[in-house]
Amino acid sequence: MKTYRELYFRGTAKQLSEFVDQIGKYAVGDWKIEKQSERWKDYLFFDYIGTHVDKARVSIYVSDKISKGELCVGNIVPVEKNELSVDEYNAVLLKFYDDVIKPFKESGTELSVSQPSDDIFDPTSVISETALKKLKLFCSAANKSTGSSHPCDQERWFDFICQTVDDGKMFDYSTLASFLQDEVYWGKKPDGFIGVMGSYAWDEEHAYELASEYENSCEVLCYYKKTRGI
Q1: HEC string of the chain?
Q2: Which residue in 217, 98, 229, 228 sits closest to 162, CA to CA?
Q3: pLDDT digits over 31-90, tens only?
């Protein structure tokens, strides 16, 4: 499953402040940094005006993030169309890193600048290894025509849900729904296969049903733990 790449900048408040002050000098050629206005004083905006990738605006939210020791590329929005695909978004981020951030990184800064993250979704970036093992157990043994309704499937499903809540590391609705349908990760149902169990991805309908069940269950469990001090 393809996912959006991320780019982080970590360091002391002084190092991050210097980054904010100096990075505009590296926005040259096909890049320009927008002057900060009163309305957008908490953001850095970099506009790509070239032709190698989609024309887009890269934004970095500053505000109180400097005191917390971390900045990141928060969003990339298109200039000439309504939205960017995941691949188009990632292409702009990589272009931004190569053209603007890498020269700054090579200038001798002590700021820690990450490499752009991978574009293939890693479930352990969201949930724990233990939780992932429980999800795999549920998915491999579940009747994929009935979701979590069978008692045995339900027990494994609930075990996975409870694990993520206990870990404090949970999927959001859309990410889980997309992940459950990922044929690259889970496998594709063989043509002509009439079975309902096995190592293959969930169909769209059941994936979204499970994601909805998951989201609702997590909300209830989190509320229960919070109000009872567990």
Answers
A1: CECCCCCEEECCHHHHHHHHHHHHHHCCCCEEECCCCCCCCCEEEEEECCCCCCCEEEEEECHHHCCCCEEEEEEEEECCCCCCCHHHHHHHHHHHHHHHHHHHHCCCCCCEECCCCCCECCHHHCCCHHHHHHHHHHHHHCCCCCCCCCHHHHHHHHHHHHHHHHHCCCCCHHHHHHHHCCHHHHCCCCCCCCCCCCCCCCCHHHHHHHHHHHHHHHHHHHHHHHHCCC
A2: 217
A3: 999 987 777 889 999 999 999 999 999 999 998 888 899 999 999 999 999 999 999 999
Q: How many C-beta atoms surround the C-beta of residue 196 within 10 A?
A: 11
Separation between Cα atoms, residue 226 and residue 60, nearest integer Å: 33
Q: Which residues pair with 43 in a beta bridge?
A: 61
Q: Which residues contact 90 (CB under 8 A, 6 or more apart)?
A: 2, 4, 5, 116, 119
* 149, amino acid identity: S
Amino acid at 190: P
Structure tokens of 91?
A: 């292409």
Q: Which residue has the tokens 């549920």?
A: 138
pTM over 0.85: no
Phi-psi category of 81—alpha, beta or left, where left has phi over 0 and alpha has psi -120 to 50?
beta
